[in-house]
Structures are given as C-alpha cells and as structure tokens.
Amino acid sequence: MFTNREEVLEKALQVFAKMNYEKATQMEIAKACGLSKAGLVYYFPFKLDLFVAVVDKYIFHTQQLENKFQFTAGSFPEFIDQYIAGVERTMNNLGRLLDNSNPYGCSFNFYYYHLLMQVRLYYPNAEKKIADIFKQNYQLWESAIQRAKENGEIRQDVDVEEAASMFWQVFFGISFEHSFFQGLNIKQLAKKLHFIYSLIKA
C-alpha cells in the first residue's frame, strides 16, 4: 500500500499520543504506517525529526488562532459562542485522527494532552513555543473583553487582564479535567463561559 509523508505524520501522531516518546520506536511507527523501518527512514531519518514534524502540524499549527477560530463582528456573547465553535471544530478534527485506535480506553483529549506533555520534554525550545500559544489566547480574550467594555456590554470596573485570565484558565482547566474522563463537554464549557460573562456584564 502506498504511503505518503502526510500519512506517515498521521500514523506517527497516533503512536506518539498513545505511547511515551521513548517507547515509540521507529520500528513501532513504521509498523503503524505499513512500512519497513527503511521506508520510514526515507521520509524521516531520525525519530526526533518525525516527532518535531508531528508536533508542528498537529499542535503548533493547529493551535494557531487563525487556524482554529472564525470570528465575525458581534456582541461578547457571540464571541464566546464563536470561540466555543472553534474549539469544537478543532476537537472534531483531532478526534477523527486519534480515535482510530484506543488501546487504553482514554478520551482522545487525554491522548492530546499526553502528547503535549511530551512536547515539553522532547521538543527543542518547546517552552517558548508553548508560551506563545498561551499568550495568543490571553491576548484574544483581552481584545474581546476590551471591546465589550468600550461597547458598554460589561462593567467599567472590570479588570480586562484579570477577566481574560479567568476565561482562558476556566477553558483550559475544564478541558484538562474532562480529558481524564469522556473528553471535553462542549455544553458544559459554554455554560461556564457564559456564566463568567453574567458576573461581569453591565
């Protein structure tokens, strides 16, 4: 069966997400791809090269705001709904990739977080790239909250930076907590974020 570079990345994603980096040998990855080890090495001579390519595509590229969200002008509640829609769309795309096999009975969200933890350990200069993702999300919320404040949607005494931290950290915390069970519950996330808005609206 013909295998191309994109198929190698997809299969490698599944292996890295469900095994520790150290356990995921080139032979194990090659087997998942339907290749010999030599066939895998043709595309990626070193395991770290393959790991970096997987992370670049499925974490750093996927989590870029322009690739995750589709915002249009509107009210702050509409911003929240569009944010949630982007999260759900990203989850669905990743779920199709990671749910092909489930050897440990975990949600695909858990496997994704498992991969993210490995990124921090094995991806060169990972701390800065992860920090950049978090910074983008904080700034996204800050911009939306500032607009809502200027439009009179939220109270004028609201600290924009603190409110942005609350929205982002509630999303990230719920996502991480739910990953240990059945995966992120989108309806619960929407309820939580709209509840925070109810606390600060004008």
Automatic annotation (TrEMBL):
This protein's UniProt keywords: DNA-binding, Transcription, Transcription regulation
Domain HTH tetR-type: 2-62
Protein name (record): TetR/AcrR family transcriptional regulator
Gene3D superfamilies: Homeodomain-like, Tetracycline Repressor, domain 2
Native species: Bacteroides gallinaceum
UniProt-listed InterPro entries: Homeodomain-like_sf, HTH_TetR, Tet_transcr_reg_TetR-rel_C_sf
UniProt xrefs under Pfam families: TetR_N
Binding region for DNA: 25-44
